[in-house]
Specification:
The chain has one domain (3-97). The protein contains 5 helices and no strands. It has helices spanning 3-25, 32-55, 63-85, 90-98, 103-106.
């Protein structure tokens, strides 16, 4: 398998599960724009972490592979959220489950 295809494959695998991890920090009361910003920043951070985990810090010398992985994570995370996690109501459920409750809500 070519290095580019391996980088893309790794990025897509990470991106496919990233929306569930992002849902842990997001809150139901946040605006859609704010949630999107958090999701994109999370995907970029996860992409960089994936590159480092997959090939070590020396991997960043290969700009094409780095960008392929980061963009793969970003694309897969957005796509899997829109096509799988949001319609199944799993990501919104995780958001609601992990949201901090105010003293009034706890009663």
């Amino acid at each position: 398998m070519s290095a580019t295809l391996e980088a893309l494959s790794t990025g897509v695998q990470v991106g496919a599960v990233l929306p569930l991890l992002t849902a842990v920090v997001q809150r139901p009361a946040w605006s859609a724009t704010y949630k999107k910003v958090v999701a994109v920043i999370s995907a970029l951070i996860a992409g960089v972490a994936t590159v480092a985990a997959d090939g070590g810090w020396d991997q960043f010398q290969h700009g094409k592979l780095t960008m392929t992985t980061v963009l793969g994570v970003l694309a897969a995370s957005q796509t899997s959220y829109d096509l799988l996690w949001k319609p199944s109501k799993l990501a919104p459920w995780v958001e609601a489950l992990t949201a901090k409750k105010t003293p009034q809500q706890a009663e």
